[in-house]
Amino acid sequence: MDRSSEFFSTVESLRSRAQPHLPSDKRRLLSPMEQQAGSLGAGGAQNKPKSEVSLMATMIGKDIHATSKKLEKLARLAKRKTLFDDRPVEISELMHIIKLDIAKLNKQIAQLQSVVKELNAKSPHNCRQAMEHNCNVVVLLQSRLAAQTSTFKDVLELRTENMKATKDRREQFMFTAQQQSNTFASDSPLYNIDRRPNSSTNPPKDILSLDLPTPSQNLQQQEQVQLVDANNQYMESRSTAIESIESTLHELGGIFQQLAQMVSEQRDMVQRIDANTDDIESNVTGAQTELLKYYSYVSSNRWLMVKVFAVIISSAVTLSVLS
Amino acid sequence: MKIYAIYVVHNNIKPAKAIVDAKDLTSFGFFQRSSIGEFMTFMAQTIAEKTQPGQRQSIEESNYVGHVYARAEGVAGVVITDKEYPPRVAFSLLNKILDEFTTRFPNNQLWTPEQCSYPELQQYIVTYQDPKQGDTIMKVQRELDETKIILHKTIESVLERGEKMESLVERSDVLSSQSKMFYKTAKKQNACCIIC
């Protein structure tokens, strides 16, 4: 944790405690400083702007510290993944506050920077170290603010992801037919028109945007965004519903195709069965013919058999008679 | 999810005045109905006043939600529902009602409760009580889902058909080979030894 702000404030308090007449000196030096430009001694010129700069820097440091605490709290809130215990009102309020704080901090740092530049332009060249120190302080504060804004952006992204996840999970329990297929690229104007004004995917009643919150946003703009948002939500929900219809239709098409494919696979089997039954038919008719032939043979054969037997018996008789 | 009331409010004038309305308060006790009805009228008029033309809003209040859509002609439609009613359906209903209203009574002077009669509002409340019935998009979605279920069943039955086909194929194969044996035996019997 960066505690240079505390350091600044301790230094100030010690200084004021050790030399109680110094603040009055500084104040006295203040008014001549305002009237004339740089005609005071180097010490006097050094003391007053440095204290002002350090005062402003302390304040900014304190604000940054407070904002980072709020950011931590917001990050903790946004990390929760429970389905039902979500607290969107708190989270959006906190986000709003943090946005305002960051904007204010930016303004303050800009002010400080201008003061430092003024000071550097005015002061003589022998307090080079002081100039460098002031510039460094400003740069440090700016970098801390930039780090905070990037953390804020990360938290916002995490929050939108979590909200999307909870929305999906909630939809799983409520609307099982709904599926989002992004591969179904449609050229319908509904897609293009409705996608443009929305850069975020949120459930309704939440003011979120994924753009890095530039510190130069006004409150008025945010209000207008809120008003337009209600319309956008309606359009968005309509487009979501129609998207789901499109995806259902797409699925239906796929199912029909599958059906057709399965039936065509079974066509081969049907052909095999057909061929088999034809074979069976021919075999059986052939066998029947054979049997008929055999039967006719046998039935006609009996007469022949009688004749043959008669011949044999007669031959056997003649043989026995002869012998 | 229910709709409690539909109002068409003339919101160009201050205070805004309801032109036509339709209520369905059967879910409340008999003695509370009139007070709840008045409260709803008041709520509808207030939120219609506060809405800019061309703007849609959904405002929550105790257990009711008022969906309001203001048109540029100076009328606004308000639908008061409970919290679960999907706002999209409410807004599409409002679109429909306001279109009909403005085509039927385009003249501002006619906008008084006595001269405008819009009995279809009561009917709309009844049909839209179940949003899946009233809203076109939801109807289409529901039919598609039913079709999908039917198709699933069809595919299952086709799979069964496939299994039966398999068994048929096997049995016809077996039959075919058996009949072939039969034929051969018969033939053999015919051709073989005449003497024995």
From TrEMBL, chain A:
It is found in: Membrane. GO terms for molecular function: SNAP receptor activity; SNARE binding. SMART domains: t_SNARE. The lineage of its organism: Eukaryota, Fungi, Fungi incertae sedis, Mucoromycota, Mortierellomycotina. It is a single-pass type IV membrane protein. Residues 1-13 have a biased composition (Polar residues). GO terms for cellular component: Golgi membrane; SNARE complex. Gene3D superfamilies: 1.20.58.70. The keyword Transport applies. Pfam families: SNARE. Residues 232-294 form the T-SNARE coiled-coil homology domain. Residues 1-48, 186-213 are annotated as: Disordered. PROSITE patterns: T_SNARE (PS50192). This is Cis-Golgi t-SNARE syntaxin. Keywords: Coiled coil, Membrane, Transmembrane, Transmembrane helix, Transport. Signal peptide: none annotated. Belongs to the syntaxin family. Its main location: membrane. The gene is SED5_1. GO terms for biological process: endoplasmic reticulum to Golgi vesicle-mediated transport; intracellular protein transport; vesicle docking; vesicle fusion. It comes from Linnemannia hyalina.
UniProtKB/TrEMBL annotation, chain B:
InterPro entries: Longin-like_dom_sf, Longin_dom, R-SNARE_YKT6, Synaptobrevin-like, V_SNARE_CC. It is a lipid-anchor. CDD domains: Longin, R-SNARE_YKT6. It is found in: Cell membrane. Keywords: Cell membrane, Coiled coil, Lipoprotein, Membrane, Methylation, Palmitate, Prenylation. Belongs to the synaptobrevin family. It comes from the Eukaryota. Signal peptide: none annotated. Residues 8-109 form the Longin domain. This is Synaptobrevin homolog YKT6. One of its GO terms (biological process) is endoplasmic reticulum to Golgi vesicle-mediated transport. The keyword Membrane applies. It comes from Linnemannia hyalina. PANTHER family: SYNAPTOBREVIN HOMOLOG YKT6.
